[in-house]
Specification:
The chain is about 55% helix and about 10% strand. It is mainly α and about 120 residues long. The chain has one domain. A two-stranded antiparallel ribbon has the order 1-2. α2 packs across α4.
């Protein structure tokens, strides 16, 4: 079976209104995001398909998580930014906090779907 991301770049730009990721970054990170969603939902979406009425929420979770994953690659979560002097600061955290942020991201969209999953 071929793995496919739950959202594509067209959805990311036009429905989710994302602008933080290039198409190449989105393609790479949306695959990772979809894999993480599958893992944290015990593969229920992968095995059984997306329940009726939940497709939009799953796609948004994929987009949000793709952005979160990219933020880790770029040095962490942006904690501050200054426009005039162009300063950017990133908060560096442990792997535990990275996992928690990813879980928090998908819970925003899919909490009722994964309520049986033990969130760490």
């Amino acid at each position: 079976m071929i793995s496919m991301a739950y959202a594509d770049y067209f959805f990311y730009q036009n429905t989710y209104k994302g602008n933080k990721l290039s198409e190449a970054d989105f393609d790479q990170n949306s695959e990772r995001a979809s894999d993480y969603i599958d893992k944290r939902t015990d593969y229920v979406l992968h095995k059984s398909g997306i329940p009726p009425g939940m497709e939009l929420r799953v796609q948004k979770a994929c987009c949000a998580l793709a952005e979160t994953i990219k933020s880790f690659e770029s040095g962490g979560v942006k904690s501050s930014e200054s426009v005039e002097g162009y300063k950017v600061s990133y908060a560096v955290g442990s792997q535990r906090s990275a996992d928690q942020r990813m879980d928090d991201t998908i819970q925003l969209y899919l909490a009722d779907l994964v309520k049986a999953v033990n969130w760490i």
